[in-house]
Amino acid sequence: MPRYDESYFFSSDPAAGALNVSSDGTQFTVQLSDPIGPPSDAKACHAGVVSGSIWNSSPNLGPGLGPGGVDDYKFQYTTSTGTPGTYNVTFPTGQYSIAAIQSYLSSAFVNNGHVANLFVIGGQAATGLSTLTTLTVGDTAHFEAAGSIASILGFPAAAVVAASAGETVYGTTQAQLNRVNTYLISSPNFIRGGIPTNSNTAGLLVAIPITAKPGSQINYQAMNVLWTPAPDLVGKSKTNFSFRLTNEAGLPAPTAGEYWSFTIVIRYER
């Protein structure tokens, strides 16, 4: 039997016709003028994503981005140096490395009238643990404070008081800076089942690995297309579809204002 391939390009860019784009950029809908629907006599209908473009810009620090949606984007400290007191540093939402966290803190310390290395956050590559070095004995990092960056750094929710000048302490669990390891594109109303993720089938169309450094664009080309049965498309003439972008845990993967796109091929025989 002859085989037919029909290609469809979808984009979250409103200029390209995306509708109802969510505020975090992870969901959108499309209303097609020409419906999708292989003829009613089509056989062996499958759908597969052959390419996609996503910016590796999903923030890992900001309100609600912590495990379970908690806040972990603040650093509170108490110092006896300069102008003594307790200070709060709030990080702008963004994609941070350990170095970027320290750079922002250093600027905040200077702006508050303290030295840039008042507290130094680093990391140990061999173990994946974060470190905290405190310049002055008695100064305190309040990791127990609400919204603390303790969880992303792998520190327990407890105050860290320097017992000696220049003391370094280690986190107790690995730092969790990589909150998105794989981008998933799903559409429950495009295909009823989708690619199974363990025991879950929620319209998953494709899993796109992160192959670009932070702030760069991932240009995905499928080496082996994962074809998903799509019998519910046959003879239906559908025009309205919704798509969502998540991480591997199924949580929204905010796009920091960037658009994402992908190409689906519908393959069938008749």
Structural features, described:
The protein is mainly beta. It has 2 domains: 3-58 and 180-269, Jelly Rolls (Sandwich), CATH 2.60.120; 67-170, no CATH class. The chain is built from 2 helices and 16 strands. The strands form 4 sheets. Strands 1, 3, 13, 14 and 16 form a 5-stranded antiparallel sheet that branches. A 4-stranded antiparallel sheet has the order 2-15-11-12, with no helix packed on it. Strand 4 and strand 5 (85-90) form a beta hairpin. The protein is elongated and about 80 Å long. The chain starts with a strand and ends with a strand. The model has no long low-confidence stretch (mean pLDDT 92).
In terms of per-residue confidence, which ranges show pLDDT below 50 for 5 or more consecutive residues? none
How much beta, percentage-wise? 35-45%
The count of DSSP E runs of length 2 or more, i.e. the number of strands, is 16
What would you call the shape?
elongated
Count of all domains: 2
CATH topology title of the largest domain: Jelly Rolls
Helical proportion, percent range: under 10%
Number of helices: 2
Biggest β-sheet description: 5 strands, antiparallel
Helix/sheet category: mainly beta
| SSE string | EEEEEHEEEHEEEEEEEE
